[in-house]
Design a protein that fits this description.
single chain, 436 residues, alpha+beta, Outer membrane efflux proteins (OEP), two-stranded parallel sheet, 17% strand, OMP_efflux, signal, membrane, transport
Length: 436
């Protein structure tokens, strides 16, 4: 086995020994946890449920209103009554009582069809609530996936930095051995120690970044930020995305565009409600009442009544200071504004999609290029290590080869991560982002 690959294998094995001691968090598990715990999703789902509960015939004004009433009262009075014959009647402490109850119904049977437009508006608001919830879910998934693959990238950078330390350790051991047998110099040993310390510092910084990125992901999952975990290092990219297909899906599935379309529908329904105020308002009412009175000083000392009542009321607007015309004009302007919002939203989203696809295509090519650079740099380091072991090259050449290999690996991981972000952005815009 070649020396360089042996060193890398040892570094990878050492890193995996810590992996086994921690939770391995898959992407599907991360998204499931986020969808369950994320506070923004919980809040937006509550709002969507409120919009759903509001969709009922009563809230739209289609159903009648039925109310029951009950009243009771009384009085105690001293009374002096003088009759036409001149006779006076004096009653001290006369107690009067009354009691009544009933049930009444009020029902608007025609209001210019506004009640039906209101009901359709409530259903549109419910649908818009679902779309807003979907948008928040997509945003949360995007944030989680981005943070997840950032952790995956950083884990590999930590492994690469650890591998660099192993190479520096190997170089320091050889330099020290050469010094011991009189074939090396103290300067080579000191230079090797400096480079070893530099690589160790880089490794510790990369470890710190990894811890920070893990905290960020834990925060998105709404769990203890100190929860320890690792993720698989796979950052495979979907290379089969086509612009035409993504643009078509964006027109159909993008939540922001869907919400704008529903906002136009709501504006049109509001216009119907306003126009309904031009028509007559017809209401019917009915009820049943029971009343009982007792008055010892009255013409009759007791009375009782009960029965049904009914009626019909119709009113027609004639003039309200031109407010009806003003309200209709404003409602029409709102419809026009909603149409403009749809076009503006569509233009902005297609522009974002175009930019994201260009970035995606560019980084796909860069991934292949940087992967080739990694292979070349690894082969160069392997050859350089062997030559250094044989004493045919200077330490500076080994250091340069080591630095080139680490830089190539770092660039490759960063390009791969950026390509993944571009893929995620495309799928979010097209409304097709999922947990696979």
């Amino acid at each position: 086995m070649k020396l360089k690959y042996f060193i890398f294998f040892i570094a990878l094995w050492l890193s995996n020994t810590t992996v086994f001691a921690q939770e391995v968090l898959t992407l599907q598990e991360a998204i499931t946890i986020a969808l369950k715990n994320n506070y923004d999703i919980k809040l937006i789902n509550n709002e969507a449920n409120i919009a759903k509960n509001n969709v009922n015939l009563g809230n739209a004004g289609i159903l009648p209103i039925v109310a029951g009433t009950f009243n009771t009262g009384g009085s105690r009075q001293n009374t002096v009554q003088t009759q036409s014959t001149g006779i006076q009647r004096i009653v001290d402490g006369a107690r009067s009582t009354n009691m009544g109850y009933g049930v009444g119904l009020d029902w608007t049977i025609f209001d210019g069809f506004s009640m039906f437009a209101n009901y359709d508006r409530l259903k549109a608001l419910e649908e818009q609530g679902k779309i807003v919830a979907k948008s928040q879910i997509l945003t949360t998934i995007t944030d989680v996936v981005s943070a997840y693959f950032n952790v995956a990238k950083q884990q590999q950078l930590v492994t690469a930095s650890d591998s660099a330390i192993n190479v520096s350790t190997y170089r320091l051991r050889i330099a020290d051995n050469k010094l011991q047998i009189g074939r090396g110099s103290k300067l080579d040993v000191l230079a090797a120690k400096v480079d070893y310390n530099t690589d160790t510092s880089t490794y510790l910084q990369q470890k710190n970044l990894l811890s920070n990125y893990q905290v960020t992901l834990n925060q998105l999952l709404a769990r203890n930020p100190l929860t320890q975990f690792v993720v698989p290092n796979d950052m495979s990219i979907d290379e089969n995305l086509e612009y035409t297909d993504m643009a078509t899906k964006t027109e159909m599935l993008n939540p922001e565009l869907q919400s704008a379309v529903i906002s136009k529908k709501i504006a049109e329904l509001n216009l119907k409600v306003v126009k309904g105020n031009r028509y007559p308002l017809v209401m019917v009412n009915s009820g049943y009442d029971f009343n009982r009175n007792a008055n010892p000083t009255g013409f009759s000392i007791r009375s009782r009544s009960n029965g049904f009542t009914y009626g019909l009321t119709a009113s027609i607007p004639i003039f309200n200071g031109f407010l009806q015309r003003q309200n209709e004009r404003n409602a029409k302007i709102a419809v026009n504004s909603s149409e403009l919002t749809i076009e503006r939203t569509r233009q902005e989203i297609i522009a974002q999609l175009t930019t994201a696809y260009q970035t995606y295509s560019t980084f796909l090519g860069l991934v292949k290029l940087e992967k080739g650079n990694v292979d070349i740099a690894d082969e160069n380091l392997d050859i350089t290590l062997e030559k250094y072991r044989l004493g045919s090259i200077a330490p500076l050449e080994l250091r340069e080869a080591q630095r080139n290999a680490l830089n190539a690996q770092s660039r490759y991981l960063e390009i791969q991560y950026q390509a993944k972000l571009a893929e995620i952005s495309l799928k979010e815009l097209s409304g097709t982002l999922n947990i696979q």
